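Two records follow; treat each independently.
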Amino acid sequence: MKVVISGGTEIGLLFAKTLASDHDVHVIESLPHALEQLEQLDLQVIVGNPTSLAVLQEARVPEADAFIGCAHSDEVNVISCLAAKQLGKAETFCFVNKAHYFETFAGELGEHLAIDRLIWPEMLLGEYIAQILAVPGAIDVKVFEHEDLKLLEFRLKTGNSAIGKKLKDLGIPRGALAVALFRDDQVIIPGGMTTLYRNDKIIFMGHEASMRKIENRFNPNPGRNLSVVIVGGGNVGYILAKSLEAYSQFRIRIIEKSLPQCQLLAERLSEKVLILHADGTDIAFLRSQQVENCDCLVALTGNDERNFFVSMHAKMLNVKKVITRAHSTENIEFFEKLGIDVALSSQFNAVQSVCRQMSDDSIDVFTIFEKGKAEIREIVVPHHFPPTRLMDLRLPEGVIIAAIRRGGHTLVPGGEDKLKEKDQLRVFCAKDQGEALSEFLLQTARDAAAAKEAESGG
């Protein structure tokens, strides 16, 4: 797949690192420090302005399958995406950072633009955090649209009844699977005899009805009201609060130190949301608000140092769940290793979202975990593959078949279920093990075809 990325700083570099190993990637950039980082990757760099027709042609935009406008300027992104649509067939992804641009182009005016996708990373992040909060106890939630599949990730904290048990003793309902464990820096594909330990992160995947039973198992008090404190009332804080308004069980407080921003929030949000004009890094104020009794504190201030400061104090006060925004993707792992439950980056979240939306069949990675240590892939079972029970397959290490898509229906398989040719698999695998499974399936199909040919020839 040929991909052109306009902009090589921050989010553009993330895209380049994600796509360069498997695709023909061209990046348009002119800033020296960004060019130095891009030169270390296996891709083509075009030095220049992405609004220049000559530069777009040099980047081979007319032949591109996808064009990603993620430069430093919203105006540049809009213009370059419009130009890309005029030059060729590329699917266009246009990033904007200002609310008014998104509101303008996502509305009626946007219907008349040729741009395929408009992405506002802060909106995606706010909605994603709301999705996580809607499942108490979970540290990650993903819904696979049109497939009746849901993914939930939980961290096993002190006192969790699953600690010390073997996976087979959890009573996982039919229609759900435990697909992975993250322990320290290890990615473990668990089996029934796998023992669970404190601080393990465990991922379940399955049908919605079965996953509700998993939710209840990790949330001993379903149906009770939940208190959420949001520190920072900027775009993400506003979008998060607006998203949570739709849920009756949430009591929401926003702590914002800018008085004009507080007034704006009060105008745009319902009376259900309490707006507090204060500095969220003031620990005395946090104590006066009894944040230790809240179910989740979300740190969304303007920089990582303040978010980290607020989050660590929340952990010290024994807040049940702490979610923190990391403006720098490099801080995600650092924050979580120091005890923060969930650290999220709007840039990293947006990159994953766009990669899932790309229409070419060669983009088969649905989502990435632990900064690339594991992933969910789509793998199609090749022709001539003999119908085989999962329990009879000697799958490569580091992979588990989480779901089978067949004839418009999705099956969460057990050992007795058979794999058949043309099945679309949803595979959870450690890094690079997806290729090992593809090769295994292809070789099995070849062997079966050869055996059949020999038999008929005999």
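The next record belongs to a different protein.
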Amino acid sequence: MSTLVQVTAGLAAVIHVLFFAAESLLWGKPAVTKTFGVRRDDVETLRLAMLNQGFYNLFLAGGVGYGIATDSIAIVGTVSAIMVGAGLVLVLSKRSAALGAAIQGLPPLVALVGIAVL
């Protein structure tokens, strides 16, 4: 597996761990909910959904980490494609979420391109 793929997929994993922390561990903190554009009145209503979403992100990060550790292009490619797909769903659902979608989707997209080209 190329260094480009390892680095960009690894970056994607780190980003997804950070999303896990924000969504599952830090949810409800004013800075976090402001970042996600959530009104204070809606924080408790969304708590369980965000906890679940955060753990999805953690599991995606773990999948990429396992793929890198075992030098499995198939695993890294599959999980990276899922990350890109989630980013696409985000931006297609809410155009104003383009920055979040880019943060979430560009590193794994570069990893996929690296897999395809190298």
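Discussion point: DSSP finds five helices and no strands in the chain. How would you locate this feature using only the token line?
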